[in-house]
Write a structure and sequence with these properties.
Layout: E1 2-8, H1 16-29, E2 34-40, H2 52-55, E3 59-60, E4 66-67, H3 70-78, E5 87-89, H4 90-103, H5 113-129, E6 142-147, H6 157-170, E7 175-182, E8 185-186, E9 189-190, H7 193-204, E10 211-216, H8 222-232, E11 239-243, H9 251-257, H10 260-268, H11 277-297, E12 303-310, H12 320-333, E13 336-343, H13 349-354, H14 356-367, E14 371-374, H15 383-395, E15 400-403, H16 405-417, E16 424-426, E17 436-441, E18 455-463, H17 471-475, E19 481-488, E20 490-492, H18 497-502, E21 505-510, E22 517-522, E23 528-531, H19 546-555, H20 559-564
Parallel strand pairs: 1-6, 1-7, 2-5, 2-6, 7-10, 10-11, 12-13, 12-14, 14-15, 15-23, 16-17
Antiparallel strand pairs: 3-4, 8-9, 17-20, 18-19, 18-21, 21-22, 22-23
Helix pairs in contact: 1-3, 1-9, 4-5, 5-6, 12-19, 15-16
The structure holds glutamine.
Protein backbone atom coordinates (compact mmCIF):
# COMPACT_ATOMS: atom_id res chain seq x y z
CA UNK A 1 0.00 0.00 0.00
CA UNK A 2 1.28 3.42 -0.97
CA UNK A 3 0.38 6.35 1.27
CA UNK A 4 0.29 9.91 0.00
CA UNK A 5 -0.13 12.40 2.82
CA UNK A 6 -1.43 15.87 2.02
CA UNK A 7 -0.70 18.46 4.69
CA UNK A 8 -1.09 22.21 4.79
CA UNK A 9 1.02 25.15 5.79
CA UNK A 10 0.43 28.91 6.27
CA UNK A 11 -3.38 28.87 6.39
CA UNK A 12 -6.18 26.37 5.94
CA UNK A 13 -8.98 26.67 3.42
CA UNK A 14 -6.80 27.07 0.34
CA UNK A 15 -7.85 23.94 -1.47
CA UNK A 16 -5.96 21.09 0.12
CA UNK A 17 -9.01 18.89 -0.40
CA UNK A 18 -9.12 19.58 -4.12
CA UNK A 19 -5.40 18.93 -4.48
CA UNK A 20 -5.74 15.68 -2.51
CA UNK A 21 -8.74 14.55 -4.60
CA UNK A 22 -7.12 15.56 -7.89
CA UNK A 23 -3.96 13.65 -7.03
CA UNK A 24 -6.09 10.62 -6.22
CA UNK A 25 -7.91 10.99 -9.51
CA UNK A 26 -4.61 11.06 -11.41
CA UNK A 27 -3.53 7.81 -9.76
CA UNK A 28 -6.85 6.34 -10.77
CA UNK A 29 -6.39 7.37 -14.40
CA UNK A 30 -3.15 5.36 -14.34
CA UNK A 31 -5.11 2.26 -13.31
CA UNK A 32 -4.49 2.27 -9.57
CA UNK A 33 -7.22 1.62 -7.01
CA UNK A 34 -7.38 4.63 -4.74
CA UNK A 35 -8.87 5.24 -1.30
CA UNK A 36 -8.79 8.32 0.89
CA UNK A 37 -8.75 9.19 4.57
CA UNK A 38 -9.41 12.60 6.10
CA UNK A 39 -7.98 13.50 9.48
CA UNK A 40 -9.85 16.21 11.36
CA UNK A 41 -8.03 17.20 14.51
CA UNK A 42 -11.13 18.40 16.40
CA UNK A 43 -12.59 16.77 19.53
CA UNK A 44 -16.02 16.06 18.06
CA UNK A 45 -16.54 12.39 17.29
CA UNK A 46 -17.91 13.45 13.91
CA UNK A 47 -19.20 16.49 12.06
CA UNK A 48 -22.84 15.61 12.73
CA UNK A 49 -23.43 18.00 15.62
CA UNK A 50 -21.66 20.97 14.05
CA UNK A 51 -23.50 23.88 12.51
CA UNK A 52 -22.89 24.14 8.76
CA UNK A 53 -21.87 27.72 9.45
CA UNK A 54 -19.01 26.37 11.56
CA UNK A 55 -17.35 23.86 9.22
CA UNK A 56 -19.46 23.81 6.10
CA UNK A 57 -21.73 21.00 5.04
CA UNK A 58 -22.04 17.77 6.97
CA UNK A 59 -21.50 15.04 4.40
CA UNK A 60 -23.40 11.76 4.78
CA UNK A 61 -22.08 8.38 3.68
CA UNK A 62 -23.86 5.15 2.72
CA UNK A 63 -23.23 3.74 6.19
CA UNK A 64 -24.84 6.78 7.78
CA UNK A 65 -21.55 8.35 8.87
CA UNK A 66 -21.85 12.14 9.23
CA UNK A 67 -18.45 13.31 8.10
CA UNK A 68 -16.32 16.18 6.91
CA UNK A 69 -17.23 17.61 3.52
CA UNK A 70 -13.86 16.60 2.07
CA UNK A 71 -15.07 13.00 1.98
CA UNK A 72 -17.62 14.28 -0.50
CA UNK A 73 -14.78 15.58 -2.66
CA UNK A 74 -13.05 12.20 -2.59
CA UNK A 75 -16.20 10.28 -3.40
CA UNK A 76 -16.98 12.59 -6.31
CA UNK A 77 -13.48 12.68 -7.81
CA UNK A 78 -12.57 9.06 -7.21
CA UNK A 79 -16.05 7.62 -7.69
CA UNK A 80 -15.68 5.52 -4.53
CA UNK A 81 -17.86 4.70 -1.53
CA UNK A 82 -16.16 5.49 1.75
CA UNK A 83 -17.05 4.53 5.32
CA UNK A 84 -17.35 6.60 8.47
CA UNK A 85 -13.97 5.15 9.48
CA UNK A 86 -12.36 7.06 6.60
CA UNK A 87 -12.83 10.21 8.66
CA UNK A 88 -10.52 10.19 11.68
CA UNK A 89 -11.08 12.78 14.41
CA UNK A 90 -9.33 13.43 17.69
CA UNK A 91 -12.62 12.53 19.38
CA UNK A 92 -12.75 9.11 17.73
CA UNK A 93 -9.13 8.27 18.54
CA UNK A 94 -9.37 9.36 22.16
CA UNK A 95 -12.63 7.59 22.80
CA UNK A 96 -11.17 4.44 21.25
CA UNK A 97 -8.05 4.61 23.43
CA UNK A 98 -10.03 5.44 26.59
CA UNK A 99 -12.40 2.56 25.93
CA UNK A 100 -9.43 0.19 25.62
CA UNK A 101 -7.93 1.59 28.81
CA UNK A 102 -11.18 0.87 30.69
CA UNK A 103 -11.20 -2.68 29.35
CA UNK A 104 -7.75 -3.12 30.75
CA UNK A 105 -5.95 -3.49 27.45
CA UNK A 106 -3.02 -1.39 28.64
CA UNK A 107 -2.93 -2.96 32.10
CA UNK A 108 0.07 -1.84 34.11
CA UNK A 109 0.94 1.02 31.75
CA UNK A 110 0.57 4.77 31.92
CA UNK A 111 -1.55 5.67 28.89
CA UNK A 112 0.04 8.58 27.00
CA UNK A 113 -0.27 10.60 23.82
CA UNK A 114 3.00 9.04 22.70
CA UNK A 115 2.91 6.07 22.12
CA UNK A 116 -0.73 5.14 22.76
CA UNK A 117 -2.58 7.85 20.87
CA UNK A 118 0.02 7.99 18.10
CA UNK A 119 -0.07 4.18 17.75
CA UNK A 120 -3.84 4.18 17.65
CA UNK A 121 -3.72 6.75 14.81
CA UNK A 122 -1.26 4.66 12.80
CA UNK A 123 -3.21 1.43 13.37
CA UNK A 124 -6.39 3.19 12.26
CA UNK A 125 -4.84 4.51 9.04
CA UNK A 126 -3.35 1.13 8.16
CA UNK A 127 -6.58 -0.72 8.86
CA UNK A 128 -8.93 1.65 7.04
CA UNK A 129 -6.69 2.12 4.00
CA UNK A 130 -7.23 -1.56 3.18
CA UNK A 131 -11.04 -1.39 3.01
CA UNK A 132 -12.20 -1.89 -0.60
CA UNK A 133 -13.95 1.25 -1.84
CA UNK A 134 -15.02 0.49 -5.39
CA UNK A 135 -16.84 -2.23 -7.29
CA UNK A 136 -13.62 -4.20 -7.80
CA UNK A 137 -13.97 -5.17 -4.12
CA UNK A 138 -10.20 -5.34 -3.93
CA UNK A 139 -7.79 -3.71 -1.53
CA UNK A 140 -6.74 -0.26 -2.81
CA UNK A 141 -3.19 0.35 -4.06
CA UNK A 142 -2.90 3.96 -2.98
CA UNK A 143 -4.39 5.78 -0.01
CA UNK A 144 -4.51 9.57 0.10
CA UNK A 145 -4.37 10.82 3.69
CA UNK A 146 -5.36 14.45 4.10
CA UNK A 147 -4.45 16.13 7.36
CA UNK A 148 -6.90 18.92 8.21
CA UNK A 149 -5.80 22.28 9.57
CA UNK A 150 -2.21 23.46 9.27
CA UNK A 151 0.96 21.82 10.51
CA UNK A 152 2.03 23.47 13.74
CA UNK A 153 -1.47 23.71 15.27
CA UNK A 154 -1.70 22.38 18.82
CA UNK A 155 -4.61 20.18 17.72
CA UNK A 156 -2.80 18.41 14.95
CA UNK A 157 0.44 17.74 16.85
CA UNK A 158 -0.34 14.08 17.76
CA UNK A 159 -1.30 13.38 14.15
CA UNK A 160 1.87 14.96 12.79
CA UNK A 161 3.92 12.89 15.23
CA UNK A 162 1.98 9.75 14.25
CA UNK A 163 2.68 10.43 10.57
CA UNK A 164 6.35 11.02 11.32
CA UNK A 165 6.53 7.56 12.88
CA UNK A 166 4.32 6.11 10.16
CA UNK A 167 6.89 6.73 7.40
CA UNK A 168 9.19 4.29 9.19
CA UNK A 169 6.42 1.84 9.97
CA UNK A 170 5.43 1.47 6.28
CA UNK A 171 8.86 2.20 4.80
CA UNK A 172 9.93 5.36 3.04
CA UNK A 173 9.25 3.88 -0.43
CA UNK A 174 5.58 3.63 0.56
CA UNK A 175 5.17 7.11 1.94
CA UNK A 176 5.07 10.44 0.11
CA UNK A 177 4.13 13.88 1.34
CA UNK A 178 2.57 16.82 -0.49
CA UNK A 179 2.70 20.03 1.49
CA UNK A 180 0.22 22.64 0.33
CA UNK A 181 1.33 26.18 0.93
CA UNK A 182 0.28 29.69 0.04
CA UNK A 183 2.21 32.27 -1.96
CA UNK A 184 0.56 35.64 -1.37
CA UNK A 185 1.05 38.56 -3.72
CA UNK A 186 1.87 41.78 -1.88
CA UNK A 187 2.12 44.98 -3.90
CA UNK A 188 2.55 42.91 -7.01
CA UNK A 189 5.34 40.80 -5.54
CA UNK A 190 5.02 37.03 -5.03
CA UNK A 191 6.10 36.35 -1.47
CA UNK A 192 7.80 33.07 -0.63
CA UNK A 193 8.58 33.64 3.05
CA UNK A 194 5.34 32.08 4.42
CA UNK A 195 6.12 28.92 2.40
CA UNK A 196 9.73 28.88 3.61
CA UNK A 197 8.54 29.10 7.22
CA UNK A 198 5.83 26.47 6.69
CA UNK A 199 8.30 23.98 5.21
CA UNK A 200 10.82 24.70 7.95
CA UNK A 201 8.13 23.98 10.57
CA UNK A 202 7.28 20.74 8.80
CA UNK A 203 10.91 19.62 8.69
CA UNK A 204 11.32 20.56 12.34
CA UNK A 205 8.61 18.01 13.13
CA UNK A 206 10.41 15.28 11.20
CA UNK A 207 8.46 15.32 7.93
CA UNK A 208 10.03 16.03 4.54
CA UNK A 209 7.95 17.28 1.61
CA UNK A 210 8.23 15.37 -1.64
CA UNK A 211 6.16 18.05 -3.29
CA UNK A 212 5.49 21.63 -2.29
CA UNK A 213 2.20 22.62 -3.91
CA UNK A 214 1.97 26.40 -4.01
CA UNK A 215 -1.47 27.94 -4.05
CA UNK A 216 -1.58 31.42 -5.48
CA UNK A 217 -3.93 33.71 -7.33
CA UNK A 218 -1.70 33.87 -10.43
CA UNK A 219 0.95 31.75 -12.11
CA UNK A 220 4.27 31.88 -10.27
CA UNK A 221 7.28 33.43 -11.93
CA UNK A 222 10.23 31.14 -12.58
CA UNK A 223 12.29 33.12 -10.07
CA UNK A 224 9.66 32.55 -7.37
CA UNK A 225 9.76 28.79 -7.95
CA UNK A 226 13.56 28.81 -7.89
CA UNK A 227 13.52 30.66 -4.62
CA UNK A 228 11.09 28.17 -3.07
CA UNK A 229 13.17 25.30 -4.36
CA UNK A 230 16.34 26.74 -2.88
CA UNK A 231 15.05 27.87 0.48
CA UNK A 232 12.81 24.89 1.05
CA UNK A 233 15.53 22.45 0.06
CA UNK A 234 13.57 20.66 -2.65
CA UNK A 235 14.34 20.11 -6.33
CA UNK A 236 12.80 22.59 -8.81
CA UNK A 237 10.55 19.85 -10.22
CA UNK A 238 9.18 19.28 -6.71
CA UNK A 239 7.68 22.77 -6.64
CA UNK A 240 4.21 22.69 -8.17
CA UNK A 241 2.14 25.74 -8.97
CA UNK A 242 -1.61 25.59 -8.34
CA UNK A 243 -2.88 29.00 -9.33
CA UNK A 244 -6.56 30.01 -9.44
CA UNK A 245 -8.41 28.50 -12.37
CA UNK A 246 -11.75 29.14 -14.05
CA UNK A 247 -12.94 25.82 -12.66
CA UNK A 248 -11.62 23.38 -10.09
CA UNK A 249 -12.20 20.60 -12.63
CA UNK A 250 -9.03 21.88 -14.32
CA UNK A 251 -6.86 21.19 -11.26
CA UNK A 252 -6.12 17.55 -12.20
CA UNK A 253 -4.96 18.72 -15.64
CA UNK A 254 -2.75 21.38 -14.12
CA UNK A 255 -1.14 18.86 -11.76
CA UNK A 256 -0.73 16.37 -14.57
CA UNK A 257 1.04 18.93 -16.76
CA UNK A 258 3.52 19.42 -13.94
CA UNK A 259 4.15 15.67 -13.78
CA UNK A 260 2.96 15.11 -10.24
CA UNK A 261 2.50 11.36 -10.72
CA UNK A 262 5.98 10.96 -12.22
CA UNK A 263 7.38 12.84 -9.21
CA UNK A 264 5.49 10.71 -6.72
CA UNK A 265 6.38 7.55 -8.66
CA UNK A 266 10.06 8.20 -8.06
CA UNK A 267 9.52 8.35 -4.33
CA UNK A 268 7.00 5.50 -4.20
CA UNK A 269 8.79 3.20 -6.67
CA UNK A 270 5.58 2.70 -8.59
CA UNK A 271 7.49 0.72 -11.21
CA UNK A 272 7.13 -2.18 -8.77
CA UNK A 273 3.36 -1.87 -8.66
CA UNK A 274 1.84 -2.65 -12.05
CA UNK A 275 -1.91 -2.22 -12.21
CA UNK A 276 -4.11 -4.75 -14.02
CA UNK A 277 -4.56 -4.18 -17.74
CA UNK A 278 -8.34 -3.78 -17.34
CA UNK A 279 -7.87 -1.06 -14.72
CA UNK A 280 -5.39 0.75 -16.94
CA UNK A 281 -7.81 0.90 -19.85
CA UNK A 282 -10.64 2.01 -17.53
CA UNK A 283 -8.31 4.68 -16.18
CA UNK A 284 -7.45 5.91 -19.66
CA UNK A 285 -11.13 6.14 -20.55
CA UNK A 286 -11.79 8.05 -17.33
CA UNK A 287 -9.05 10.51 -18.15
CA UNK A 288 -10.40 11.07 -21.65
CA UNK A 289 -13.89 11.69 -20.27
CA UNK A 290 -12.50 14.09 -17.73
CA UNK A 291 -10.61 16.10 -20.31
CA UNK A 292 -13.60 16.23 -22.60
CA UNK A 293 -15.79 17.42 -19.78
CA UNK A 294 -13.47 20.20 -18.71
CA UNK A 295 -13.16 21.45 -22.26
CA UNK A 296 -16.97 21.41 -22.58
CA UNK A 297 -17.06 23.52 -19.45
CA UNK A 298 -15.13 26.28 -21.19
CA UNK A 299 -17.46 26.32 -24.17
CA UNK A 300 -20.81 26.81 -22.43
CA UNK A 301 -22.46 30.12 -23.11
CA UNK A 302 -26.20 29.72 -22.68
CA UNK A 303 -27.04 30.45 -19.06
CA UNK A 304 -29.35 29.04 -16.43
CA UNK A 305 -30.16 30.99 -13.33
CA UNK A 306 -30.90 29.05 -10.14
CA UNK A 307 -31.92 30.65 -6.88
CA UNK A 308 -30.98 28.81 -3.70
CA UNK A 309 -33.21 29.80 -0.78
CA UNK A 310 -31.30 28.72 2.29
CA UNK A 311 -30.37 29.66 5.82
CA UNK A 312 -26.63 29.11 5.81
CA UNK A 313 -25.96 31.12 2.66
CA UNK A 314 -23.20 33.21 4.23
CA UNK A 315 -20.91 30.19 4.04
CA UNK A 316 -21.22 28.66 0.59
CA UNK A 317 -19.45 25.50 1.78
CA UNK A 318 -22.60 24.73 3.79
CA UNK A 319 -24.15 23.63 0.51
CA UNK A 320 -21.12 22.24 -1.27
CA UNK A 321 -22.71 18.96 -2.41
CA UNK A 322 -25.80 20.83 -3.59
CA UNK A 323 -23.60 23.19 -5.62
CA UNK A 324 -21.64 20.27 -7.04
CA UNK A 325 -24.82 18.38 -8.02
CA UNK A 326 -26.04 21.53 -9.80
CA UNK A 327 -22.67 21.93 -11.51
CA UNK A 328 -22.63 18.30 -12.64
CA UNK A 329 -26.14 18.71 -14.05
CA UNK A 330 -25.29 22.01 -15.75
CA UNK A 331 -22.32 20.36 -17.44
CA UNK A 332 -24.59 17.61 -18.72
CA UNK A 333 -27.17 20.16 -19.93
CA UNK A 334 -24.39 22.33 -21.37
CA UNK A 335 -25.56 25.40 -19.54
CA UNK A 336 -23.50 28.05 -17.79
CA UNK A 337 -24.75 27.91 -14.22
CA UNK A 338 -25.42 30.98 -12.09
CA UNK A 339 -26.49 30.45 -8.50
CA UNK A 340 -28.16 33.38 -6.79
CA UNK A 341 -28.09 33.03 -3.04
CA UNK A 342 -31.14 34.15 -1.13
CA UNK A 343 -31.15 34.14 2.65
CA UNK A 344 -34.63 32.83 3.41
CA UNK A 345 -35.39 35.35 6.17
CA UNK A 346 -35.04 38.15 3.61
CA UNK A 347 -38.19 36.87 1.87
CA UNK A 348 -40.30 37.11 5.01
CA UNK A 349 -42.93 39.76 5.73
CA UNK A 350 -40.86 41.03 8.68
CA UNK A 351 -38.01 41.88 6.32
CA UNK A 352 -40.34 44.03 4.21
CA UNK A 353 -40.38 46.43 7.16
CA UNK A 354 -37.01 45.96 8.82
CA UNK A 355 -34.80 45.46 5.82
CA UNK A 356 -36.56 46.64 2.70
CA UNK A 357 -33.52 46.64 0.44
CA UNK A 358 -32.72 43.01 1.15
CA UNK A 359 -36.40 42.09 0.93
CA UNK A 360 -36.76 43.54 -2.55
CA UNK A 361 -33.45 42.17 -3.77
CA UNK A 362 -34.34 38.71 -2.48
CA UNK A 363 -37.76 38.74 -4.16
CA UNK A 364 -36.26 40.11 -7.33
CA UNK A 365 -33.93 37.09 -7.38
CA UNK A 366 -36.75 34.64 -6.73
CA UNK A 367 -39.03 36.18 -9.35
CA UNK A 368 -36.38 36.20 -12.04
CA UNK A 369 -35.07 32.69 -11.37
CA UNK A 370 -35.27 29.87 -13.90
CA UNK A 371 -35.47 27.41 -11.02
CA UNK A 372 -35.92 27.56 -7.24
CA UNK A 373 -34.13 25.23 -4.87
CA UNK A 374 -34.84 24.87 -1.15
CA UNK A 375 -32.09 22.74 0.40
CA UNK A 376 -31.91 20.92 3.73
CA UNK A 377 -31.83 22.74 7.04
CA UNK A 378 -32.61 22.58 10.73
CA UNK A 379 -34.63 24.88 13.00
CA UNK A 380 -37.28 27.48 12.29
CA UNK A 381 -35.27 30.49 11.14
CA UNK A 382 -36.11 31.38 7.56
CA UNK A 383 -38.73 28.69 7.05
CA UNK A 384 -41.58 31.15 6.36
CA UNK A 385 -39.45 32.65 3.61
CA UNK A 386 -38.96 29.18 2.17
CA UNK A 387 -42.71 28.54 2.24
CA UNK A 388 -43.22 31.78 0.32
CA UNK A 389 -40.63 30.76 -2.28
CA UNK A 390 -42.26 27.32 -2.71
CA UNK A 391 -45.62 29.03 -3.21
CA UNK A 392 -44.17 31.25 -5.91
CA UNK A 393 -42.64 28.25 -7.67
CA UNK A 394 -45.85 26.23 -7.55
CA UNK A 395 -48.18 29.03 -8.66
CA UNK A 396 -45.94 30.41 -11.38
CA UNK A 397 -44.87 27.04 -12.71
CA UNK A 398 -41.22 27.68 -12.01
CA UNK A 399 -39.19 24.46 -11.54
CA UNK A 400 -38.78 23.64 -7.86
CA UNK A 401 -36.52 21.20 -6.09
CA UNK A 402 -36.99 20.74 -2.34
CA UNK A 403 -34.41 18.69 -0.49
CA UNK A 404 -35.34 17.19 2.89
CA UNK A 405 -36.50 20.35 4.71
CA UNK A 406 -37.38 21.61 1.22
CA UNK A 407 -39.84 18.71 0.80
CA UNK A 408 -41.38 19.37 4.22
CA UNK A 409 -41.73 23.06 3.31
CA UNK A 410 -43.49 22.21 0.04
CA UNK A 411 -46.00 20.05 1.93
CA UNK A 412 -46.72 22.78 4.48
CA UNK A 413 -47.19 25.29 1.67
CA UNK A 414 -49.57 22.98 -0.19
CA UNK A 415 -51.61 22.24 2.92
CA UNK A 416 -51.92 25.93 3.72
CA UNK A 417 -52.59 27.41 0.31
CA UNK A 418 -54.28 24.65 -1.65
CA UNK A 419 -56.09 22.68 1.05
CA UNK A 420 -56.91 25.64 3.24
CA UNK A 421 -55.24 24.24 6.38
CA UNK A 422 -53.97 27.72 7.13
CA UNK A 423 -52.19 26.77 10.36
CA UNK A 424 -50.34 23.78 8.85
CA UNK A 425 -46.96 23.48 10.53
CA UNK A 426 -44.02 21.23 11.33
CA UNK A 427 -43.41 20.11 14.90
CA UNK A 428 -39.81 21.14 14.46
CA UNK A 429 -40.60 24.76 13.71
CA UNK A 430 -42.83 25.87 16.61
CA UNK A 431 -42.28 25.66 20.38
CA UNK A 432 -45.73 24.24 21.20
CA UNK A 433 -47.31 21.22 19.45
CA UNK A 434 -49.17 22.67 16.43
CA UNK A 435 -52.89 22.03 15.82
CA UNK A 436 -52.14 20.72 12.32
CA UNK A 437 -48.77 18.98 12.41
CA UNK A 438 -48.09 18.14 8.76
CA UNK A 439 -44.53 17.25 9.68
CA UNK A 440 -43.83 15.20 12.82
CA UNK A 441 -40.94 13.79 14.81
CA UNK A 442 -40.04 10.24 13.81
CA UNK A 443 -40.75 7.82 16.62
CA UNK A 444 -37.42 5.97 16.56
CA UNK A 445 -35.26 9.08 16.81
CA UNK A 446 -33.68 10.03 20.16
CA UNK A 447 -34.88 13.22 21.83
CA UNK A 448 -31.97 13.36 24.28
CA UNK A 449 -28.94 12.52 22.12
CA UNK A 450 -28.29 14.55 19.00
CA UNK A 451 -25.06 12.89 17.79
CA UNK A 452 -25.58 10.21 15.13
CA UNK A 453 -29.22 9.52 16.03
CA UNK A 454 -31.12 10.78 12.99
CA UNK A 455 -32.47 8.57 10.22
CA UNK A 456 -29.17 8.33 8.39
CA UNK A 457 -27.52 6.81 5.37
CA UNK A 458 -28.50 4.77 2.35
CA UNK A 459 -32.11 3.53 2.30
CA UNK A 460 -34.45 2.31 -0.42
CA UNK A 461 -37.31 4.36 -1.88
CA UNK A 462 -40.00 2.52 -3.83
CA UNK A 463 -41.87 4.17 -6.66
CA UNK A 464 -45.58 3.61 -6.10
CA UNK A 465 -48.04 1.95 -8.47
CA UNK A 466 -49.28 4.08 -11.38
CA UNK A 467 -46.44 6.56 -11.17
CA UNK A 468 -45.06 5.95 -14.66
CA UNK A 469 -45.96 9.55 -15.41
CA UNK A 470 -43.49 10.79 -12.79
CA UNK A 471 -40.74 12.81 -14.40
CA UNK A 472 -38.36 11.86 -11.66
CA UNK A 473 -39.08 8.17 -12.10
CA UNK A 474 -38.42 8.49 -15.83
CA UNK A 475 -35.15 10.24 -15.07
CA UNK A 476 -34.16 7.33 -12.85
CA UNK A 477 -34.80 5.11 -15.87
CA UNK A 478 -38.26 3.91 -14.91
CA UNK A 479 -36.94 1.71 -12.07
CA UNK A 480 -39.05 0.51 -9.12
CA UNK A 481 -36.55 1.26 -6.37
CA UNK A 482 -33.81 3.81 -5.83
CA UNK A 483 -31.24 3.99 -3.05
CA UNK A 484 -30.30 7.40 -1.71
CA UNK A 485 -28.79 8.87 1.44
CA UNK A 486 -30.83 10.33 4.28
CA UNK A 487 -30.36 12.68 7.20
CA UNK A 488 -33.48 13.76 9.03
CA UNK A 489 -35.43 13.60 12.30
CA UNK A 490 -38.86 14.64 11.04
CA UNK A 491 -41.17 13.17 8.43
CA UNK A 492 -44.47 13.89 6.68
CA UNK A 493 -47.26 13.02 9.11
CA UNK A 494 -48.81 9.78 7.75
CA UNK A 495 -52.21 10.94 9.02
CA UNK A 496 -52.38 13.65 6.36
CA UNK A 497 -51.07 11.66 3.43
CA UNK A 498 -54.42 10.53 2.04
CA UNK A 499 -55.83 14.04 2.24
CA UNK A 500 -52.75 15.52 0.57
CA UNK A 501 -52.87 12.96 -2.22
CA UNK A 502 -56.58 13.57 -2.78
CA UNK A 503 -55.80 17.26 -3.09
CA UNK A 504 -53.32 16.49 -5.90
CA UNK A 505 -49.97 16.25 -4.15
CA UNK A 506 -48.56 12.88 -5.17
CA UNK A 507 -46.10 10.97 -3.06
CA UNK A 508 -44.65 8.98 -5.90
CA UNK A 509 -41.93 7.42 -3.76
CA UNK A 510 -42.24 5.93 -0.29
CA UNK A 511 -40.05 3.76 1.94
CA UNK A 512 -40.26 -0.01 1.61
CA UNK A 513 -43.14 -0.18 4.11
CA UNK A 514 -45.08 2.60 2.45
CA UNK A 515 -45.05 4.63 5.67
CA UNK A 516 -42.45 7.29 5.00
CA UNK A 517 -42.98 9.84 2.26
CA UNK A 518 -39.77 9.97 0.25
CA UNK A 519 -40.63 11.78 -3.01
CA UNK A 520 -43.36 14.25 -3.81
CA UNK A 521 -44.19 15.47 -7.27
CA UNK A 522 -46.86 17.69 -8.80
CA UNK A 523 -48.46 16.52 -12.00
CA UNK A 524 -49.40 19.69 -13.79
CA UNK A 525 -46.16 21.48 -13.33
CA UNK A 526 -42.95 21.63 -15.42
CA UNK A 527 -40.99 20.17 -12.49
CA UNK A 528 -42.05 20.35 -8.88
CA UNK A 529 -40.18 17.69 -6.92
CA UNK A 530 -39.31 17.21 -3.27
CA UNK A 531 -37.16 14.44 -1.83
CA UNK A 532 -36.89 13.52 1.83
CA UNK A 533 -33.45 12.15 1.03
CA UNK A 534 -30.40 14.10 -0.10
CA UNK A 535 -29.61 13.02 -3.66
CA UNK A 536 -26.70 15.47 -3.88
CA UNK A 537 -24.51 13.15 -1.81
CA UNK A 538 -24.37 10.62 -4.64
CA UNK A 539 -23.92 13.01 -7.55
CA UNK A 540 -20.84 12.47 -9.69
CA UNK A 541 -19.13 14.70 -12.22
CA UNK A 542 -19.79 12.22 -14.99
CA UNK A 543 -23.04 10.88 -13.50
CA UNK A 544 -25.18 13.77 -12.21
CA UNK A 545 -27.83 13.10 -9.58
CA UNK A 546 -31.21 12.51 -11.26
CA UNK A 547 -33.42 14.85 -9.20
CA UNK A 548 -30.88 17.63 -9.80
CA UNK A 549 -30.48 16.78 -13.46
CA UNK A 550 -34.26 16.95 -13.94
CA UNK A 551 -34.41 20.23 -12.07
CA UNK A 552 -31.62 21.80 -14.08
CA UNK A 553 -32.99 20.50 -17.37
CA UNK A 554 -36.46 21.84 -16.54
CA UNK A 555 -34.95 25.20 -15.54
CA UNK A 556 -33.16 25.26 -18.90
CA UNK A 557 -36.36 24.36 -20.72
CA UNK A 558 -34.99 21.08 -22.09
CA UNK A 559 -36.44 18.48 -19.71
CA UNK A 560 -39.18 17.23 -22.01
CA UNK A 561 -36.73 16.79 -24.87
CA UNK A 562 -34.36 14.99 -22.52
CA UNK A 563 -37.10 12.62 -21.34
CA UNK A 564 -38.15 11.85 -24.91
CA UNK A 565 -34.57 10.87 -25.71
N1 LIG B 1 -34.86 19.47 9.96
C1 LIG B 1 -35.53 18.53 9.14
C2 LIG B 1 -35.55 17.14 9.77
O1 LIG B 1 -34.81 16.85 10.67
C3 LIG B 1 -34.88 18.45 7.79
C4 LIG B 1 -33.51 17.88 7.83
C5 LIG B 1 -32.72 18.16 6.62
O2 LIG B 1 -33.09 19.02 5.81
N2 LIG B 1 -31.59 17.52 6.48
O3 LIG B 1 -36.32 16.31 9.36
Amino acid sequence: MKFVVVSGGVISGIGKGVIASSTGLLFKTRGYKVSAIKIDPYMNIDAGTMSPLEHGEVFVLDDGGEVDLDLGNYERYLDVTLTRENNITTGKIYSHVIERERKGDYLGKTVQVVPHITNAIQDWIERVAKIPVDDSDEEPDVCIVELGGTVGDIESAPFVEALRQFQFRVGSENFALIHVSLVPVVNGEQKTKPTQVAVRDLRGLGLTPDIVACRCTQKLEASTCEKISMFCHVGPDQVLVVHDLSSIYHVPLLLDQQKIIQQLSKKLHLENLTPKESFVSKGTALWNDWKLLTSTHDRMFEGVNIVLVGKYTHLKDSYISVIKALEHSALRCQRKLTINWVEATDLEVDASETNRVNFHKAWHNVCSADGILVPGGFGSRGTEGMVAAAKWARENKVPYLGICLGLQIAVIEYARNVMGITDAQSEELVPEPPANPLVVFMPEVSKTHLGGTMRLGLRPTKFQANTEWSKLRQLYGGVDTVHERHRHRYEINPKYVLELEKAGLDFVGKDERGERMEILELKNHPYFVGTQYHPEYLSRVLEPSKPYLGFLAASSGILDAMLKK
